[in-house]
Structure formats: C-alpha cells, structure tokens
C-alpha cells in the first residue's frame, strides 16, 4: 500500500493480527499514518501513571492545592508526550531497497530507505524484524536515510523478510509507538557450500555419457605445486620427497582451458541437500580456478562459461531447486 491506504472494514481494523503483523504486503513505499501507528504506555509510563494516581489520591485526602497543581501539571506533560510520540512517526515514508544474495547461514543486509518529508527531525527511531538486530535511526528534516537491516539466514531459496516494525519512545519514554509493516521483500539465499574435500566430477562435452573426476592433466609440464588431497600418486615428485623437500605434485596442462558440466544427478551425496551443497562448493572452486563450467539440473542446462555473472546464475539455479 502506498500513500493512499485502502479502506478497511470494521472487522479488519480491530483484528488482533493487524496490531502485530500489519496489513497486506506492499511493493510500494509505505507512508505511516494514524491508521498504521499504535500507541500504548511503556513500562515507565505505567509506573508513572500509578504514581500519578497515588499523588491524586493523596491530594484528595489532604486537600492540598499545591499537590493538586503538581499532579495535574505532570499529567498534562504525559498527555502532551503522547502527541509528540505520534508526531515522531507520522508521515514517514519507508521503502525496501537492494539486498545482495548470501550463502545460507550468513547475514544478509537489507537496505531500508526512510524519507522524512517534515520540517522537524525524527529522533531515536528503531527498526526491527524477525531474525534481525534492531537498528537505531535518526533522520534530519527533509532528508532521506538508509538503514542497513541485518537479517540472519538459515536455508537456501527465497527468504521472506516478514513483518518489520518501526518503534519510537520519543520524547521521554513514557509511551511506545509502533507500526508493523510488510514490504513484500524477499532475500535470495544461496546453498551453504560443502566442506567435504571431494574433487569436482565433470561430464565431458565430447562424451556426455561418461562421468569422470576432474583433473588438470595435459601434455605440457607446468611445474611443481604443493600436494593437495586428490592429486594422483603418479604425479608426486618422489625425488624431492626423498631429499626432504616435502610432498610436491607435478602439474600438467594444455593451452586449452578445460570445460566442465556439473550434473546434479551425477553428484555424490546422501540426499538432495548434500548434493546441492557439494555443487555449490565446486562452482566456487572452479570459478576461483578460472575453469569454465556448466550446470545440469533435471531438464535444464547452463552452458559452460565463467565470470561473476555466470557464477551468480548457477548459484541462483541451485538455490531454487
């Protein structure tokens, strides 16, 4: 919902869910108005109200005019603070911004845009959401600010942000004004990369029916490198090992870069999630190694390529399997 809120029925207005999770999700900017802002006394406000009741009772019992004046003066200050509490939030425009994909288990940063069109500042506003730490925001008059909302992720795929809450205790903390907002924003979460040290299998473009383990074998000797898990034993430089120079492997290659097709069905694993996690690890490693790779998922095929755009496309497809 944007600047012109849709009419609600009487039942919808007083439904308890509306006070906690807000109204229907909106793709547009949301403007806070009297219909969206709710105010209740805080713990300090309840204690203050109890104290004022005791003061009023004492004033009546002892018929003390000065006590009456002090009680009514403090009560009027409390009532005025309600108006300031409401004014600190009304008219504020909120819109969800950009969020980069992250791997499952990492923290995603969602940029929330807050626009203050009024001539007075918005002080000590708090923005919170499920699985996110509250963010304190101060907005100058006629200014716009970006609040980074850091949300914890748990599993791959689209993760809904859910209800975000704007909260204010301004000016003296006696009343709590809040507004639950749904911005229909989703975060893309990549699979969590596996830590299992298995060499990436390839499906050769020339022989797509045979699955092989990927090696950088070729006709040209490229030099020596530190031995890594999975290196062929026939490539170990035994003479250097006999001289006490450590375990080193001979590297061979060719001028033509290898091209791989990673197949979900050919990937080892106990279940679908473990195979997807392993494929995610291979995509990251192959991209870092500068090897062109493709991805086969069910009936779809992403042709071999490399680069950040290709990597993001493959990871996206894995996340949405």
SSE diagram, text form:
Blueprint: H1 10-13, H2 16-21, E1 30-31, E2 38-41, H3 43-62, H4 65-87, E3 93-96, E4 102-103, E5 107-116, E6 122-129, E7 135-139, E8 143-152, E9 157-160, E10 163-168, E11 175-182, E12 186-190, E13 201-203, E14 211-213, E15 220-226, H5 238-242, E16 248-253, E17 259-263, H6 272-289, E18 292-297, E19 300-305, H7 308-319
Helix pairs in contact: 3-4, 6-7
Give a quick set of tags describing it.
five-stranded antiparallel beta sheet, 19 strands, four-stranded antiparallel beta sheet, alpha+beta, 3 domains, 321 residues
Write structural notes for this entry.
By secondary structure, this protein is of the alpha+beta class. It has three domains: 1-188, no CATH class; 191-214 and 258-321, no CATH class; 224-257, no CATH class. Helix content is 27%, strand content 32%. It contains seven helices and 19 strands. The chain has helices spanning 10-13, 16-21, 43-62, 65-87, 238-242, 272-289, 308-319; strands at 30-31, 38-41, 93-96, 102-103, 107-116, 122-129, 135-139, 143-152, 157-160, 163-168, 175-182, 186-190, 201-203, 211-213, 220-226, 248-253, 259-263, 292-297, 300-305. It has a five-stranded antiparallel sheet with strand order 2-11-10-6-7. The chain has a four-stranded antiparallel sheet with strand order 1-3-5-8, with no helix packed on it. The protein has a three-stranded mixed sheet with strand order 4-12-9. A hairpin with a 6-residue loop joins strand 10 and strand 11 (175-182). The longest helix is centred in the N-terminal third of the chain and has 23 residues, at 65-87. The relative contact order is 0.11.
